[in-house]
Design brief:
This protein is of the alpha/beta class. It has helices at 18-29, 44-53, 68-82, 105-133, 154-174, 192-199, 204-213, 223-234, and strands at 9-13, 33-38, 57-62, 87-90, 136-141, 179-186, 245-248. The protein has one domain (9-250): NAD(P)-binding Rossmann-like Domain (Rossmann fold), CATH 3.40.50. The structure holds nicotinamide-adenine-dinucleotide (NAD). Nicotinamide-adenine-dinucleotide binds next to α1, β2, α4 and α6.
Length: 255
Amino acid sequence: MATRLEGKVAIITGAASGIGAASAGLFAAEGAKVGICDLPGTGIDSVVEEITAAGGEALGMPADVSDPDQVEAFVAAVAQRFGRIDVLFSNAGIGGKGTAEEMDLIEFNRVLAVNLAGGFLCAKYAIPHMREAGGGSIIFTASELALVGSRRNLAYTASKAGLIGMARSMALDHGPDNIRVNVLCPGAVDTPMLRRSIDMHDDSAAYEQMIVCEITLGRIGHTDEIARTALFLASDDSSFMTGATIVADGGATAQ
Ligand SMILES: NC(=O)c1ccc[n+]([C@@H]2O[C@H](COP(=O)([O-])OP(=O)(O)OC[C@H]3O[C@@H](n4cnc5c(N)ncnc54)[C@H](O)[C@@H]3O)[C@@H](O)[C@H]2O)c1
């Protein structure tokens, strides 16, 4: 039995799919009790069922991370059910394509509301519980695109770059509470989000090949590879890390 998160309670957002679902399963397998959320109708219950069937403990709730009332209720429900909160993996995210000319303000604000303000809200409501527990670990899923520019992708890149600045400031504010705050920047990872982005292109096979060519390791990443990086940041293995940005992109931004 793996025990790297034994005795801890972890919140994971955007956990019905992709990186969030893989991380929920891994964190539970490592001994954490997990509170997971996603948008209504996205299948959070089946992730709870899988975790429970494997012998873990999970609470699933529909919640939109951009809505303060829903985030507050979700965090409170997890704390009430499991008695504490040690880890927040703020992972929910959406894409948003377009140049400044093409994109309207409503769409721009929606991407920022989910990807950036969503992280702020989750942290805002989780931090008091972490302080009470004697400390904690907050992880924001950003992207390799937080570190480089990306064509027709300005709202997404702005939101993900914003997470890095926000995490550094949060790390300074809450270091004295023993709350660590770090950012995980995945590269291309095989999830429904990546598949949607590939399928938007007329020649999707050629576009996928282009992505692979830009990755030093010559392949797209797997969700469990990102989940294991998140586990490192969630666990005491990273106990001297805060305000840091970890990149797991197969070397895409090395060139
Ligand atoms: N897949 C990649 O290549 C890649 C690369 C870099 C960063 N990321 C980031 O990783 C994170 C996870 O993405 P993924 O690839 O697993 O995608 P995914 O689409 O499989 O999963 C994202 C989940 O977030 C949920 N979500 C969206 N808006 C939400 C909201 N307002 N409230 C709650 N949940 C919401 C979705 O319903 C979905 O289940 C995202 O932040 C994404 O930007 C992904």
